Amino acid sequence: MTVSNVLQKDQTRKKWSIQYFTAVWCAPCKQMSPAMDIISKRHLDAIDIVKINIDENPEIAQSLSVRGVPTLVLSNGLGETSRLVGAHSINDIDHWITSKIELR
Question: Which domain holds residue 44?
Fold first, then answer.
């Protein structure tokens, strides 16, 4: 995956995307993984969620100035609109998403 693949994702069939930056060695990432699976299914029609391993794709993390994991970057076809850093509950993530975009 390259930076252009991640950014191109924003301009395909769905208006919104979340780049979910994670790492296999990251305990908070492992804690948040089940919540992200549920969020992905819950908002399947409205949001593309792209899981990005920072160790396998350091250029993407660097290009978006990701300094720690887990990090969620919400974007649309125009670019980043919001960011959530650190492990959060499913309710926190869902509230973050719905406070930033209108889901139908």
Answer: 3-100
Using alpha carbons only, what angle is made at residue 27 by residues 22 and 28, rounded to the nearest 5 degrees?
Answer: 65
* Residues taking part in catalysis: 26, 29
**CATH code at position 10:** 3.40.30.10
Question: Would you say 23 and 55 are in contact if contact means Cβ atoms under 8 Å apart?
Answer: yes
Domain count for the chain:
1
Could you read off the pLDDT tens digit of each residue along the chain, which spans 104 residues?
Answer: 444 566 565 455 468 899 999 999 999 999 999 999 999 999 988 898 999 999 999 999 999 999 999 999 999 878 899 999 999 999 999 999 999 988 65
